[in-house]
Task: structure prediction
Amino acid sequence: MTKNILLFKGATMINLQAALERLPRFPLAQLPTPLQRAPRLSEALGGPTIYFKRDDLTGMPLGGNKTRMFEYVLPRALAAGADCVVAGAAIQSNYCRQLTAACAQAGLEVHLVLRSVRPDVEQTPQGNFLLDLLMGAHVYLVENIGWPEQIEKIYQLADELRAQGRQPYVARAANQADIGLDAAAYTHCALELHRQLAEQNIKPDYLYVAAADTTQGGLLLGAKAMGESYKIVGVNPLGRSAFGGPPATELILHSAHKAAEELGLSIEINPADVISHDDYVGQGYAAPTPAGLEAIRLVASTEGILLDPVYTGKAMAGLIDHIKQGLLKPGDTVIFLHTGGYLALFAYQHYFDFQGRITRL
Result:
């Protein structure tokens, strides 16, 4: 029976790999990213055994999960004849920083409509915003508007560029046409992780990730395709409804189905498969929480791994709280998928209190 299961999984891996290889790909990421045990963090928390899947080390400037996605999205933009890409998000967007780096390698000009979340502290270029500018992005700043109005401005800018004879490609999150490709990138990650787990003889019970749509959707599809037994637990950093849109659970499910379509896979992800917690977001997106800041300090001081206050810090706070609640047992094995973003630490430095840690000589 065991032999038959292994043969089935081997055949499934080959089929999934073949489906992924049929998608055009622009090489950007340094893969596979490491799978790293965190023994001091596990000891500090009284168990479980914790591993980091280091997608903060994908190879683009300061890494992150979006680098995998742009490998699949850029070929579509280039095939459409684009000479520039238009996108937008918050001013400290990891997405926009990785997009700008990816487009620099592809020879595409980038135009970013960036929304200031904290206008009182975001006027000076730093963190992701600084790197956007260094890597050549044309930046258009907006304040005091919601996401629907920002989307309108992104499409208005694309229209203006077309009127100038340019060929813009509108990227996410304004344009949702590529959601299946973004999720497929994390189906590939699930396959990569499967191989690492087999090589290191690790049998995880849970995988935790900061996610609200495509990252978790792609992981779910890949894990189900290969018959994985671990549960994928998403900690949603955006709140129950992302910027007034559908609930994250619906977005995750939708992105998994769109990835299956892109890959030509007849695999159904059910609502019961989606585990998404939105109770660690605090006051809202990009607003740090005390538990998230403490999680950042703990991981940095025990493992030398940096998290960020917007995404991964809150996801780790969720994992830590689940340990305290007894939802995770000392004998469990947990993978924490690190999606990057720690460059934002420089823009949030005033939230950390280092009193008593600095001595003048």
Q: What stands out?
A: The CA atoms of residues 299 and 305 lie 6 Å apart. The mean pLDDT is 93. The beta strands are 35-37, 49-54, 84-90, 109-115, 138-142, 168-170, 206-210, 231-235, 275-277, 333-338. Residues 179-200 form the longest helix (22 residues).
